[in-house]
From TrEMBL:
Keywords assigned by UniProt, alphabetized: Membrane, Transmembrane, Transmembrane helix
The name this protein goes by in its record: Zinc transporter ZTP29
Record localization: Membrane
Stored InterPro entries: ZIP
Keyword Membrane belongs to the record: yes
Membrane topology of the entry: Multi-pass membrane protein
Amino acid sequence: MGLMDSQVLVALGLSLLGGLSTSIGAFFVVINPTPNLKTLGVLQGFAAGLMLSISFLDLAHNAINSIGFLKGNLWFFAGVIFFAIIANFIPEPTLSPISDVKTRKKNEDERGKDMTKKHRRQVLFGGIITAIGISLHNFPEGMVVFLGSIKGLRVGLNLALAIALHNIPEGVAVALPVYFATESKWQAFKLATLSGLAEPLGVIIVAYLFPSSLSPEILEGLLGSVGGVMAFLTLHEMLPLAFDYAGQKQAVKAVFFGMAFMSASLYFLEISLPEDLSL
């Protein structure tokens, strides 16, 4: 086994550690008794914040930095438009109107039980979108862990740890809506774990397929348009849910908390990176 291979294995191990921490988040969701709608709303808000932070402050930002303001924006909005067109063909789940507060308290439990099928679908959709967004985000993180651990085990370990910590709430953000919608602990756990496994996948792809024929400009552009898709989905699907369940004030707080959290964890990732290696 060559040096490269052992390094790939180390990186794989480390990124598995980081990736599987989404399962830890999912585990917290699964051991709790059924969450109430308010918690779901706040968490959807938090997840929306994570997603917006990833799409605006990370993906779009990087695209603009590397291919210029105009091109970066064009790619971003291409993503938005592309998805807006697709979303047109997805039948719109309608939100059930919320009755006045008194009956609402009584209905809360029943509502939790007989959440309309449409609603469940929307919640599930939110979970799946979060899973996809987080997978895409974990991809480059896996690459970074790989490059980091080539530099040395300590660097790789620090990175894997930093990533693991910020993947735990990501796991919660994926698992909760899925669990809520499907009432299946296994489905929730599975989806969250899968979104974490994008991380070792990133390692494998970098180790064996890069440098590939894809020009960095197109790659950055595509990531920018993924940012557009994520932003659109977040505003279109997750925010309305968060508002509906947690109320506007709480939901907005949760969104900014999610954004701050994501930025903080990206910052910690950045400072745990050696100087000559950047995300």
